[in-house]
């Protein structure tokens, strides 16, 4: 298995918003590197093979920020979270 690149379009209106996303990604096991870009409204995550897309999506969603769209390794992917 190889690493993955997860790209999220996240509604962030200020540095506090991007900071919240930054904090959850920093603590997430399996993240090799990441970049949160407030200007472009994106969060890009380089993830190891053991970190599922859904886990990263859920962590970002728990910040209260809306995830508008996402890609896995350059391919569009659903951002619908399963109902708990």
From TrEMBL:
Question: Under the cellular component aspect of Gene Ontology, which terms does the record hold?
Answer: cytosol
Keywords assigned by UniProt, alphabetized? Chaperone, Copper, Copper transport, Ion transport, Metal-binding, Transport
Q: Which Gene3D superfamilies match?
A: 3.30.70.100
Domain HMA span(s) in chain numbering: 3-68
Q: Where are the transmembrane segments?
A: none
The domain of life for this entry's organism is Eukaryota
* One Pfam family named in its UniProt record: HMA
Q: What is this protein called?
A: Cytosolic copper metallochaperone
- Its source organism is Coniochaeta pulveracea
